[in-house]
């Protein structure tokens, strides 16, 4: 028997695309414009809407409540929907607000509790020692059994969701462990479990965002003024992979006091010097920063200063800023990156600031830091323990 479907069903290959097209068309009819940077984000003069599958979030000011109610009514005529009220949870992320103090927090405490219970991780009130007792991670010589591989992939995937959403402090460690997804050893399994052991007592650490009035002041780093409302940092660790001699790179974008975008990874090619590695990392960061600025413009978020990217390599800064010959390199792609960065800088796309390694917030995205250096990295990320905030919200809800 052969049946012809009249509409898409959950689970089919084309269903997500068909749903995205259908919802996009519905938003267009309601006067929303799709973002060029984020295809699941839509805006008009007073409303911002984004969605993940069938979870839809509306952002608007209190004075537009009547218009928002009308928008929801129109949307309900096309889809069967449930209005859950003020946003408190989204994809396992807790959302807390303090309107009087103009603060907002994002936390994954509930999700962390879920995966810790799921994988039977020991719960301790304190985490002692370094996150990784050793940075010497060895590849397994024989092939791991399929069951071990599958279990390891599940654990890494579960922890990685925390690392990419709210916890940049574990981005580099989990990125390193992801290199062994196809053939993990007992050492790798132990280390991913250790990350979850660290997450348990720190599960209430949250990303905190402050209102614009609280963050427009400048901070001083190496005699240079950095706008606190938007910080962008780039870093690289030259030839730190002992097998391939590829370099690690990382970047972070902090908006209104909280990280909004970051990445820890390995460069796709081998470079011949630390300057080349830093240049590749900087170019990647600059492109991300420019794309983020375009997104800000599309949602009508005005940042009252040029993009300023922090770098801890003075030679890289000189190659981009100064009127000097290009970097002497036999690597064509490095030369291309150098030319692009110089051109973008000369066109005023961004500015550059030197930041010492000790104050470089992206440093913890290029290497697994020990002890006090790791604690300093967490402080740089400005992650906040929200247990007292939760207690206040629970008391107000009970009243």
TrEMBL record:
<protein>
    <recommendedName>
        <fullName>Reverse transcriptase Ty1/copia-type domain-containing protein</fullName>
    </recommendedName>
</protein>
<dbReference type="GO" id="GO:0071897">
    <property type="term" value="P:DNA biosynthetic process"/>
</dbReference>
<feature type="domain" description="Reverse transcriptase Ty1/copia-type">
    <location>
        <begin position="2"/>
        <end position="124"/>
    </location>
</feature>
<dbReference type="InterPro" id="IPR013103">
    <property type="entry name" value="RVT_2"/>
</dbReference>
<dbReference type="Pfam" id="PF07727">
    <property type="entry name" value="RVT_2"/>
</dbReference>
<dbReference type="InterPro" id="IPR043502">
    <property type="entry name" value="DNA/RNA_pol_sf"/>
</dbReference>
């Amino acid at each position: 028997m052969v049946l012809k479907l009249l509409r898409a069903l959950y689970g089919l290959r084309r269903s997500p695309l068909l749903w995205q097209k259908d919802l996009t068309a519905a938003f267009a009819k309601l006067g929303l414009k799709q973002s060029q940077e984020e295809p699941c984000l839509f805006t008009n003069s007073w409303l911002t809407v984004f969605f993940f599958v069938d979870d839809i979030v509306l952002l608007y000011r209190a004075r537009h409540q009547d218009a928002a109610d009308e928008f929801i009514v129109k949307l309900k005529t096309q889809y069967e929907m449930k209005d859950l009220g003020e946003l408190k949870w989204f994809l396992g992320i807790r959302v807390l607000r303090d309107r009087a103090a103009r603060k907002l927090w994002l936390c994954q405490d509930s999700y962390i509790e879920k995966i810790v219970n799921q994988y039977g991780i020991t719960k301790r009130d304190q985490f002692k020692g370094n996150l990784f007792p050793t940075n010497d991670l060895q590849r397994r010589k024989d092939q791991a059994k399929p069951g071990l591989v599958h279990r390891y992939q599940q654990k890494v995937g579960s922890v990685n969701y925390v690392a990419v959403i709210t916890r940049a402090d574990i981005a580099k460690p989990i990125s390193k462990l992801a290199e062994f997804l196809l053939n993990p050893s007992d050492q790798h399994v132990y280390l991913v479990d250790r990350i979850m052991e660290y997450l348990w007592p720190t599960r209430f650490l949250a990303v905190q965002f402050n209102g614009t009035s609280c963050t427009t002041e400048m901070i001083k780093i190496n005699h240079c003024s950095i706008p606190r409302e938007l910080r962008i940092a780039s870093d690289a660790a030259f030839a730190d992979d002992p097998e391939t001699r590829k370099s690690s790179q990382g970047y972070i974008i902090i908006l209104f006091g909280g990280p909004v975008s970051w990445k820890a990874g390995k460069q796709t090619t081998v470079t011949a010097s630390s300057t080349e590695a830093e240049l590749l990392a900087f170019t990647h960061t600059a492109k991300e920063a420019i794309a983020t600025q375009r997104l800000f413009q599309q949602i009508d978020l005005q940042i009252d200063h040029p993009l300023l990217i922090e770098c801890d390599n003075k030679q890289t800064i000189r190659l981009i800023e100064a009127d000097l010959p290009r970097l002497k390199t036999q690597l064509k792609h490095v030369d291309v990156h150098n030319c692009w960065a110089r051109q973008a800088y000369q066109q005023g796309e961004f500015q550059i600031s030197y930041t010492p390694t000790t104050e470089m917030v992206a440093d913890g995205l290029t290497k697994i830091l020990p002890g006090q250096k790791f604690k300093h990295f967490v402080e740089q990320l400005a992650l906040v323990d929200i247990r007292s905030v939760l207690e206040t919200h629970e008391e107000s809800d009970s009243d």
